[in-house]
Specification:
The protein has 285 residues and is an alpha/beta fold. The chain has 2 domains: 202 residues, 2-enoyl-CoA Hydratase, Chain A, domain 1; 72 residues, Lyase 2-enoyl-coa Hydratase, Chain  A, domain 2 (Orthogonal Bundle). It has 11 helices and 9 strands. The strands form 2 sheets. Strands 1-2-3-4-6-9 form a 6-stranded mixed beta sheet, sandwiched between helices. α1 runs parallel beside α3 and α2 crosses α3.
Length: 285
């Protein structure tokens, strides 16, 4: 399937999704939101995909919402609105592109090659690893446009950098240099622009070559969903059961054998067919 605003390129186990409106600094549109949702849902269902990298074409990552339509750009009732509302299918399945990224069973890496402003910043927050190029800048500029933090960012941002820093950035609405974003923990690495994609692919390859797909799918949901709990009782109720299930399965046997035999692992488990019955535990009643 071809997209109008994205490039979808699978190279071995690594999928690269490129925001592809370089003449507009990859400014966000409703079409881009729907296509991001579809891309992550496709990646989730495709066992060939182990890791997703998201980057931008040209000199920007995503300059925020496309406001070329003027003052009505954010009015969802007006013609030409960027319409942050997700399409009916995405809403029904949970949160549009934010839900698709967050619920994806494959880990994601944001390779931020330039300005990531407004929705361009918030769409990276549900991703698992963020690295950026020297000179890239973040901006949570919503208050400067008369808006509030969107795309779940009032939940994601404090979880990633702490409430004081999230308040500082959102209330000021100013642009954040790469070094400041790294110091706060929003991005893990700042690299030379010409090394950004190579470094993202290096991280992706390390994950794809050394880890079990089912373990990764479970681990990222455990970390995201339990890290804000007041005590460990919830995660203890889940991790013990998962350890028993996985411990008797073929992935653990292969992982131990590969370690003892000093060879790369060949994990047989697939997220399309081998997720434990306990998953998704948050939907069990």
């Amino acid at each position: 399937m071809a997209y109008d605003t994205l490039l979808y390129e699978l190279d071995g186990p690594v999928l690269t999704v490129t925001l592809n409106r370089p003449d507009k600094l990859n400014a966000y549109t409703a079409v881009m939101g729907a296509e991001l949702t579809d891309a992550f849902q496709r990646a989730d269902e495709d066992d060939a995909v182990r890791v997703v990298i998201v980057t931008g074409a040209g000199r920007g990552f995503c300059a925020g919402a496309d406001i070329s339509g003027g003052a009505n750009a954010f009015d969802t009732q007006a013609e030409g609105s960027v319409a942050f509302q997700a399409p009916d299918r995405a809403r029904a399945e949970g949160g549009g592109f934010v839900g698709a990224i967050f619920n994806c069973r494959k880990p994601s890496i944001a390779a931020i090659n330039g300005a990531a402003v407004g929705v361009g910043a918030t769409l990276t927050l549900p991703m698992d690893i963020r690295i950026c190029a020297e000179g890239a800048r973040y901006g949570f500029v919503f208050a400067r446009r008369g808006l509030v933090p969107e795309a779940g960012s009032a939940w994601f941002l404090p979880k990633l950098v702490g409430l004081p820093q999230a308040l500082n950035w959102c209330l000021r609405g100013s642009l954040i240099p790469a070094a400041e974003a790294q110091a706060a923990g929003l991005v893990s690495e700042v690299v030379a622009p010409d090394q950004l994609l190579a470094r993202a692919r290096e991280i992706a390859a390390e994950i794809a070559e050394n880890t079990a797909p089912v373990s990764i799918a479970l681990a990222r949901q455990m970390l995201w969903r339990f890290s804000g709990e007041a005590d460990p009782s919830g995660v203890l109720a889940v991790d013990g059961r998962l350890s028993m299930i996985l411990g008797a399965g073929p992935d653990v046997k292969e992982g131990v054998a590969a370690f003892l035999e000093k060879r790369p692992p060949r994990f047989p488990g697939r997220v399309s067919s081998d997720m434990p019955d306990l998953y998704p535990w948050w939907d069990k009643t």
